[in-house]
Specification:
Structural class: alpha+beta
Strand content: 35-45%
Largest sheet: 5 strands, antiparallel
Number of domains: 1
Number of strands: 5
Shape: elongated
CATH superfamily: Hotdog Thioesterase
Mean pLDDT: 94
CATH architecture: Roll
CATH topology: Thiol Ester Dehydrase, Chain A
Number of helices: 1
Low-confidence stretches: none
Radius of gyration: 15 Å
Strand order of the largest sheet: 1-3-4-5-2
Helix content: 10-25%
């Protein structure tokens, strides 16, 4: 039985050669930034305003991402506080030449965002 994706598909992006190191491996930092973008998009909807990342509480790299993979980030709500939102983010890939419809979970993590005003001060989430 295959693992189920948890959350909403929030972004989808293609891993390109520019996203690699000299050895041809996709940078973990590139993957983290894509997950952070997905978390921000998801939390902005909940907060109905600007959010900033305040913590990456955990990240587990399970498998590599390769050039040509389509990276899909799924985000789900873990908890909503007065000014903060904590989400779980799963990164799945569709391999360029893999079976049609097959997805592989490559990374997962827990991220926390805070709603801020124009001066970047925390403000309550409605």
């Amino acid at each position: 039985m295959s693992e189920q994706k948890k959350g909403d598909l929030t972004i989808r992006v293609l891993a390109m050669p520019a996203d690699t190191n000299p050895s041809g491996d996709v940078f973990g930092g590139w993957l983290l930034s894509q997950m952070d973008i997905a978390g921000g998009v998801f939390c902005r909807k909940i907060a109905k305003g600007r959010v900033v990342t305040v913590a990456i509480d955990s990240t587990t790299f399970k498998l590599p991402v390769f050039v040509g993979d389509t990276l899909c980030c799924y985000v789900h709500l873990i908890k909503k506080g007065r000014t903060s939102i904590t989400v779980g983010i799963e990164a799945w890939v569709n391999r360029e030449f893999g079976e049609e419809g097959s997805s592989i979970k490559v990374t997962e993590g827990e991220y926390t965002y805070v709603k801020v005003d124009e001066k970047r001060n925390p403000i309550p989430i409605a």
